[in-house]
Amino acid sequence: MSNNIEVGNIVVGKVSAIKSFGAFVTLDEGKEGLVHISQIAHSFVKDINEHLSVGDEVKVKILSIDEESGKISLSIRKTLPAPEAKPKTERPRRPKQKKGGLNYQDPKNNQAFNPIADKLKAWLEQNK
């Protein structure tokens, strides 16, 4: 582990404060950086307090340093091994449809789709 505060280095720091958007980590030389909530873990983090507490020692990777403001962006996630990719499962495919939307079949077939116009004629005949 390098204790130099340079972009790309991995250093050890102590969590000094936790906010809803991230955790502040104090590094060597009294400098402080922010670990954004998206950089805490590989999985979704809803509540940072479930992952970190004030006083925890953490390994962080230095992502960027803004020379003007002195802000340091850190990542805990980049120091952790990446999770294994889950194998993709095949989803069943839908049957291809003919142009024009629904697969229209001859109304004489009992399993076919019968348009409302055919039913309307039959209803009008029954109500005479």
What is the number of E strands?
A: 5
CATH architecture field of the domain at 10-79: Beta Barrel
Distance between the termini: 92 Å
CATH homology-level superfamily of the domain at 10-79? Nucleic acid-binding proteins
Strand order of the largest sheet: 1-2-3-5-4
Helix content: under 10%
Query: Mean pLDDT score, rounded?
Result: 83
- Tally of separate helices: 1
Order of helices and strands: EEEEEH
Which descriptor suits the 3D outline?
elongated
Summarize the structure.
A hairpin with a 2-residue loop joins β1 (10-19) and β2. It is built from one helix and five strands, in the order βββββα. It is mostly beta strands.
List its traits.
elongated; 26% strand; 128 residues; 9% helix; OB fold (Dihydrolipoamide Acetyltransferase, E2P); single chain; mainly beta; five-stranded mixed beta barrel
Explain what this protein looks like in three dimensions.
This protein is mainly β. The model has no long low-confidence stretch (mean pLDDT 83). It is built from 1 helix and 5 strands, in the order βββββα. The protein has a domain at 10-79: Beta Barrel (OB fold (Dihydrolipoamide Acetyltransferase, E2P)). Helix content is 9%, strand content 26%. The protein is elongated, with a radius of gyration of 31 Å. It has a 5-stranded mixed barrel with strand order 1-2-3-5-4. InterPro entries: NA-bd_OB-fold, Ribos_protein_bS1-like, Ribosomal_protein_S1-like, S1_domain.
Question: How do the helices and strands line up, and which of them pair or pack?
Answer:
Blueprint: E1 10-19, E2 22-26, E3 32-36, E4 57-65, E5 72-75, H1 116-126
Parallel strand pairs: 3-5
Antiparallel strand pairs: 1-2, 1-4, 2-3, 4-5
